[in-house]
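Q&A log
Question type: sequence-to-structure
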Amino acid sequence: MKLTVVESSMIHAVGYDAKTRELEVVFNSGRTYVYEGVPPKIYKELMAAGSKGQYMRAEIIDCYPCHELRVMNSDRVAGEAYPQAFIASLVSTRPQAGFDAGINPIHAGDCV
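Response status: OK
Response body:
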């Protein structure tokens, strides 16, 4: 999936696959997460949001199941390469059911 660099203090780049409804978010921390089952409307609203970080917290994080993605391909972000912090082994780790990448319990009912 092609990623687009965004202006945000929280997010470096965002990509979306409408067929699979997967939203890929590269955070400024260097971590990349894939959120599953995200409707196109949510992606469009994220990209249009004045504060992408606030929108992520309110509408995506803890609202959709996700897993951390470790990426290696540095040409995936349009117009620039990942910083070294983004380059890691190409391993996708899926959390156990009920957990958001091992960080936060999923509370999908809070968002619907």
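Response note: Strands lie at 4-5, 11-17, 22-27, 32-35, 66-69, 92-93, 99-100, 104-105.
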